[in-house]
From TrEMBL:
<dbReference type="GO" id="GO:0016788">
    <property type="term" value="F:hydrolase activity, acting on ester bonds"/>
</dbReference>
<dbReference type="InterPro" id="IPR037459">
    <property type="entry name" value="RhgT-like"/>
</dbReference>
<protein>
    <submittedName>
        <fullName>Rhamnogalacturonan acetylesterase</fullName>
    </submittedName>
</protein>
<dbReference type="InterPro" id="IPR001087">
    <property type="entry name" value="GDSL"/>
</dbReference>
<dbReference type="Pfam" id="PF00657">
    <property type="entry name" value="Lipase_GDSL"/>
</dbReference>
<keyword id="KW-0378">Hydrolase</keyword>
<comment type="similarity">
    <text>Belongs to the 'GDSL' lipolytic enzyme family.</text>
</comment>
<dbReference type="InterPro" id="IPR036514">
    <property type="entry name" value="SGNH_hydro_sf"/>
</dbReference>
Amino acid sequence: MKARLFIASDSTCQTYQEKDAPQAGWGQFLPEYLNEYAVFNHAIGGRSSRTFIEEGRLKEIEKNITAGDYLLVQMGHNDATKEKPERYTEPYKDYKEFLKQFIVVARSNKATPILITPVARLHYVSGEFLPDFGDYCNAVKEVAEEEGCPLIDLMTLSIHHLTEIGFDEARTFYMVDVNGTDHTHFTEKGANKIASIIATQLQSIITS
């Protein structure tokens, strides 16, 4: 029986239908890099750590997750939307508390939680890729340290990769290359690469 990975996240990670192509999320490509794992992608667009829990989506994971499984949690993009108070969380208060609820669910079922900082948007100014969601990234790191939880700093890793490949290539990773407006969501090419970055980090964590 394969080891199992459960994912709790947002539209940057969710699995899209063929009709949505070329838009894609990194979660749908993760199985291509982790053949020895069964991946259950619960990511869905528009959810913050708050609304993912309030809608019962963590409860659905809790029904199935068990000893030896892993729970990957990447939240933050929608937590930062102050103009949508039903989603918004204050980074150093309720955001941290909600993240800890994911950890509790995993550990109470003898599974391993792994926290992931938000992934980079295509934010390019004066020849430099800029990280967003700074307070949320910091808060994730604080929770990981406080709870002794493994962490993948995807913001740093994704910014580093974008810097390596340069703006023209980086642009093809995002839907802005298709529609001219969307600097957040990935094309299949971009989602695939983010999945490969995460898979490398996961293998390191799991085998350490």
